[in-house]
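Reopening this ticket.

The earlier resolution said the output was attached, but the attachment link was broken on my side. Pasting everything inline this time so it's all in one place.
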Amino acid sequence: MARARSAEPDRRTFLGGSDAPAVLGVSTWLTPVDLWRLKTGRAKPEPNPDRDRRLERGKRLEPFICDMVVDKLRDQGHEVKVLARNERYTDPQYPFMKCEIDLELEVDGEHVTGDAKSVGGQARHRWGQEGTDEIPIEYAAQFMDGLMITGRQRCLAAALRSFDDVDIYWLRRDEETIAGMRQKMVTFWQNHVERDVPPDPINFADLRALFATPEPRRVEATPEILEALDELGLIKGRIQALENREEHLRYVIGKHMGPAETLASGVRDLMSWANEERSKFDLERFKREHPDWYALYTTKTTTRVLRRAKSRSARAR
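Inline output:
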C-alpha cells in the first residue's frame, strides 16, 4: 500500500472513494455513464448549488466532527489515539484506484479508518440505529472502498445530525463485497475509461448523453418496442386526464371557498387560499429594451427530443 500526499490531484486520472458509488450504480448523483463522461473529459461537473453547499458545509464541519468522535469514544471508555487526518492512499496493484481518509484512529489498539458526514434534512431518515452498519448504501460503498485500499478491517462513520452529539456507526470489512467492488472498478477503468468505450446506459438521460446527435436514418420497431410505444401513449393520456381532473377539483374547492382564505373542517384547517408575493423577471421587456445585453447572456443548447411522429395523413394536409 503506497501513501501519497500532494496538491489536489486531477480527478480525471483516477477512481476515488466518492466515485465508487457511481461505478457500482448506487450513487444518487451520477450514473456510470455520467462518471465515464467526466473521467474522459467529455463533460465537466455540472453546477448544483444544493449539492455544492452540502459538500462545502461538510468540509468545514469535518474537523469539528472528528473532534466530537474522539471525545465520544473516550467518554465511552475506549483508548483512542489520533493517527492521521485526510491522508491519501493508492492501491498497491492498481495505481488508478485511490482514496482519501478523513480520520484514522487507534481504538483500543486497532487501527481503524474514519469518515465524517454532516447529515441534515430528509437525509436523516436514511441512517439507521447508532452503533450498527445501517448507513446509506452510497456511503457504504465509499467506506468499503477505503477499507479495500488501506487494508483496514473496520471503518467508523460519524454522522453529525445535531451540534449536541455525533452518531457513530461501524462498517466491517467484507471480503466478498470488496472482491466484487474491485472487479467492477477495475473493469470500469480498463474497459471503459482507458479504452474510451462507454458503459451501458441505465436511464434515458444516459441515452441522450451518449447519442446526442441523431443520424438521418430509420430503424424498424420490434414488437416489444411497439408495445412500449402504445404503453407510453396510454401513460401520457392518463397524465393529461389526471392534470385535467386536478384543475377541475381546484375549481370546485376554490368556488366553494370564494373570498375565504381558509378551508376548515371543525377545528382543523384543511387548505389555505392566500396571496403570495412573487418576483418575476420581465424577460420580453429586457430583450426589447436591452437587446445587446440579452444577446450577451443568451446561450443556445441542442437537445434530442423523443416525440411521437405525426401520421402520414396529418403530414400530407
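Reporter confirms the inline version is readable. The chain has two domains: 2-208, 218-257. Residues 218-257 form one domain.
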